[in-house]
């Protein structure tokens, strides 16, 4: 049985005259890992702060666990673990002290999981927080959040300061949460990161949700961009299933750029191989590519 | 030197712009104080021989001498001499509060923000930040003393001349350099703005106390206090030049050491090295109040120790305050022993009344600092994870606010107890305990109502904390100068300082006591409710 954990309905937020959020709606169901994707300044952190009851919305409604986020923050918060986008810590406390404090303030204890996390993230808990780099501060918050046993985890661009190895550790931990049936809201500006961990995606730009749905529904987002050069002309590739946005880079049609569905890759490769591949490059699309290619200003909706 | 300071010019321009509002407010405050001091005194002196003699008499009383500094003994007094006697110490303290903050903002705070790390990576020299800060200090001080000179020249007090006005302006300029350079040095010695500003304020308090004690007991020794150097210039009488030279020389020495340290130290580190922290938290660190104790305890203990020292020093002055009546032969002739003792005691009590407001102000600052830390910690983002956790906003804000009230109350009580009991060990005629009761029962509610005002402001209009400083600062200034100038009673009654005017001679009135207690409660609740409604911009 799934229940709704977070429900945003036409959320708006103004800072004075500046409209930070103009229309944000989405839901997060139990057990779902929802990726909240958008470029810098899109309004991800603002949305998350409203969900946490730190900011008061200027319009629309926000409910978390079926309760109003602003009115009932005291009832909601004990069931949430949160990592802010920019982690700042008391400069004169050590990392270990801060982890314990954050746990205790949520009625939890330093447990075996905490020690495991400290080890796997390779944090030195003895150092004072002012000596930590951005990544290390992030680790302190990650360890405190991940060693809690709560219903909802909210991560605001959690991997921004982490090196690839720790990023990997983080992804493993999120997958563990998913197995345990926890709900996760994860904001990011990197499409591939969200794809790897999440089962649904909400895309926000300029304070507005422009696309949302399950990973399957947004399949086209994960199309791979391919640039290829062949020995003989590949005119017939335009009829191939799963090839989109094809442009030839020369009149002989031996150089081409297109995007491809992942499940059609095998077939496409076979066709290309027949033409003798001279050079091939594939890249995952970036968020900017997506915006450029699929959405004008208006956007599109798949779920709801 | 050339390469170490490259591009200091751009830093200077940026800093000037960044601090424009801050410095402008201070400049206006200083000029207002100077202008009103000069014109009030001039008005009191002109054409009223009796009132001028009265003012000089008042100023020679020990409590006033302790507060404002000594006034030279000359045959005939004019406005200018009295002006220098009243204003020099006072203006130097205000200026020091300004320039010390300015220097620490430009060096430590920016270093903490990571701004300097970014700037240093550009084509900016190692000591360019110090150079730019010093230049800003110099520019601000030159503007300040230029206006001082213009004001003094315009008001043209009785007894002034061009040379005297000029020297006064120069004297205040070198006071800025002296205290600014001290803050600069402390900033290079430590790695955080908190320690640097605490050390700077401690230094200021120490120099003030040193001059206070020596002014009362042994005026030759006032030399040992940097503030004393400026007293000893004797503006408008002796106009001693070389005392200013001494202060300049010391400033240069201090500045050079700051440069030497600044060009050799690691960015973000201090000379005093640091121990590693704990692997796990102490078992008591499990709530917001204990978190505050963990983060603010040194500040709190520092305040407590300063209050006790201040109390002990002031207490040991009490016999000097009384002695003066005794040694005055005229009093001895016309009064019997009982009357002399009574007169002594009333002198002591009025001295206590005067300093009670200073104790209240210090305790209120200690408490309000913690209250305002709530918004500061919010802005730094320290609290964002905690806000998303179980502690509610009410728990968080009430913890900061109550801790602030507690710190204020304890700092005050410690100071007053030290004052009273040290006083009684040196007095031949110890003060009865009921005066201690008067002191505490009036001043504790006064401190809590000041702090509660800070609480309400922090909850309702967190950006307007300056309102608190204006209210308390002007109240204190009115209180301190009320003995000298005839100020309307209504002005005095606008702040708690006025509500406890006759304490400790009499107890605080029931009415004002209830006003203070009720306003503490109401303002506290307003602060909590306001914080509950705030957008937490993290
Ligand atoms: N307190 C605030 N006052 C004014 N504008 C703000 C405030 N907080 C955020 N903004 C603006 O709202 C927009 C969204 O910011 P944010 O939610 O932090 O973006 P994101 O997290 O997606 O990068 C930005 O343009 C930002 O400048
Ligand atoms: Mg953000």
UniProtKB/TrEMBL annotation, chain A:
Keywords assigned: ATP-binding, Nucleotide-binding, Transport
Keyword Transport found: yes
InterPro entries assigned to the protein according to its UniProt record, in alphabetical order: AAA+_ATPase, ABC_transporter-like_ATP-bd, ABC_transporter_ATP-binding, P-loop_NTPase
Domain ABC transporter per the UniProt entry, residue ranges: 6-231
SUPFAM superfamilies: P-loop containing nucleoside triphosphate hydrolases
Regions annotated as coiled coil: none
Keyword ATP-binding among record annotations: yes
Domain of life: Bacteria
Recorded GO MF terms: ATP binding
Family under the similarity heading: Belongs to the ABC transporter superfamily.
Protein known as: ABC transporter ATP-binding protein
Source organism: Periweissella beninensis
UniProtKB/TrEMBL annotation, chain B:
Signal peptide location: none
Membrane-traversing stretches: 20-41, 77-100, 128-155, 167-186, 198-214, 241-261, 298-318, 348-372, 400-422, 442-461, 468-485, 511-531
Tagged with keyword Transmembrane: yes
Keywords, ordered alphabetically: Membrane, Transmembrane, Transmembrane helix
The protein's name in its UniProt record: ABC transporter permease
Source organism of the structure: Periweissella beninensis
């Amino acid at each position: 049985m799934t229940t709704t954990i977070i429900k945003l309905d036409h959320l708006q937020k103004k800072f004075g005259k500046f409209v930070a959020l103009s229309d944000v709606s989405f839901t997060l169901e139990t057990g779902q890992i929802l990726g909240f994707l958008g470029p810098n300044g899109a309004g991800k952190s603002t949305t998350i702060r409203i969900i946490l009851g730190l900011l008061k919305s200027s319009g629309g409604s926000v409910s978390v666990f079926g309760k109003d986020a602003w009115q009932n923050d005291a009832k909601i918060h004990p069931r949430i673990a949160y990592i802010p986008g920019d982690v700042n810590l008391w400069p004169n406390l050590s990392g270990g002290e801060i982890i314990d404090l954050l746990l205790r303030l949520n009625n939890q204890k330093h447990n075996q999981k905490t020690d495991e996390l400290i080890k796997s993230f390779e944090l030195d808990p003895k150092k004072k927080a002012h000596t930590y780099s951005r990544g290390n501060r992030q680790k302190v918050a990650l360890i405190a959040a991940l060693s809690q046993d709560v219903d909802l985890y909210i991560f605001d661009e959690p991997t921004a300061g982490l090196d690839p190895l720790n990023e990997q550790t983080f992804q493993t931990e999120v997958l563990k949460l998913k197995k345990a049936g926890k709900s996760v809201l994860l904001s990011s500006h990197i499409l591939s990161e969200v794809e790897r961990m999440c089962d649904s995606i909400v895309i926000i730009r300029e304070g507005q949700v422009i696309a949302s749905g399950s990973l399957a529904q947004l399949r086209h987002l994960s199309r791979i961009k391919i640039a290829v050069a062949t020995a003989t002309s590949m005119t017939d590739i335009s009829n191939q299933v799963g090839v989109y946005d094809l442009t030839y880079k020369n009149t002989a049609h031996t150089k081409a750029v297109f995007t491809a569905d992942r499940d059609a890759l095998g077939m496409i490769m076979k066709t290309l191989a027949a033409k003798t591949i001279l050079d091939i490059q594939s890249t995952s699309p970036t968020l900017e590519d997506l915006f450029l290619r699929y959405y004008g200003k208006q956007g599109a909706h798949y779920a709801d | 030197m050339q390469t170490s300071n490259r591009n200091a010019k751009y830093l200077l321009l940026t800093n000037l712009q960044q601090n424009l509002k801050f410095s402008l407010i201070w400049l206006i405050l200083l000029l207002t104080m100077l202008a009103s001091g000069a014109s009030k005194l001039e008005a009191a002196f002109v054409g009223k021989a009796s009132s001028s003699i009265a003012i000089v008499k008042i100023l020679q009383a020990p409590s006033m001498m302790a507060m404002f500094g000594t006034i030279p003994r000359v045959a005939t007094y004019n406005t200018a001499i009295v002006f220098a006697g009243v204003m020099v110490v006072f203006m130097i303290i205000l200026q020091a509060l300004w320039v010390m903050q300015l220097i620490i903002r430009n060096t430590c705070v920016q270093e903490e923000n990571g701004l300097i790390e970014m700037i240093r990576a550009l084509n900016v020299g190692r000591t360019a930040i110090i150079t730019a800060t010093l230049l800003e200090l110099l520019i601000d001080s030159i503007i300040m003393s230029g206006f001082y000179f213009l004001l003094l020249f315009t008001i043209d007090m009785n007894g002034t001349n061009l040379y005297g006005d000029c020297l006064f302006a120069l004297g205040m300029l070198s006071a800025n350099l002296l205290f600014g350079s001290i803050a600069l040095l402390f900033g290079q010695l430590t790695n955080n703005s908190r320690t640097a500003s605490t050390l700077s304020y401690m230094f200021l308090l120490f120099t003030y106390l040193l001059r206070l004690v020596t002014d009362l007991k042994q005026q030759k020794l006032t030399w040992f206090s940097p503030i004393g150097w400026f007293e000893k210039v004797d503006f408008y009488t002796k106009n001693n030049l070389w005392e200013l030279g001494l202060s300049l020389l010391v400033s240069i020495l201090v500045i050079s050491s700051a440069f030497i340290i600044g060009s050799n130290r690691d960015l973000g580190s201090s000379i005093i090295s640091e121990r590693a922290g704990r692997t796990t938290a102490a078992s008591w660190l499990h709530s917001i109040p204990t978190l505050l104790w963990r983060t603010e305890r040194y500040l709190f203990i520092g305040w407590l120790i300063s209050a006790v020292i201040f109390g002990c020093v002031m207490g040991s002055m009490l016999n000097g305050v009384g002695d003066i009546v005794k040694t005055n032969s005229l009093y001895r002739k016309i009064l019997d022993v009982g009357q002399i003792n009574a007169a002594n005691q009333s002198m002591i009590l009025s001295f206590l009344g005067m300093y009670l407001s200073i104790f209240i102000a210090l305790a209120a600052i200690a408490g309000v600092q913690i209250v305002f830390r709530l918004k500061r910690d919010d802005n730094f983002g320290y609290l964002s994870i905690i806000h998303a956790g179980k502690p509610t906003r009410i728990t968080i804000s009430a913890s900061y606010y109550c801790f602030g009230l507690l710190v204020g109350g304890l700092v005050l009580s410690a100071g007053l107890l030290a004052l009273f009991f040290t006083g009684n060990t040196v007095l031949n005629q110890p003060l009865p305990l009921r005066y201690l009761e008067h002191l505490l029962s009036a001043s504790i509610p006064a401190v809590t109502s000041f702090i509660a005002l800070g609480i309400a402001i922090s909850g309702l209009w967190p950006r307007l904390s300056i309102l608190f400083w204006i209210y308390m600062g002007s109240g204190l200034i009115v209180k301190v100068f009320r003995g000298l100038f005839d100020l309307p009673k209504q002005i005095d009654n606008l702040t708690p300082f006025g509500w406890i005017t006759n304490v400790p001679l009499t107890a605080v009135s029931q009415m004002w006591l209830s006003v203070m207690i009720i306003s503490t409660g109401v303002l506290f609740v307003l602060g909590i409710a306001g914080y509950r409604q705030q957008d937490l911009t993290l």
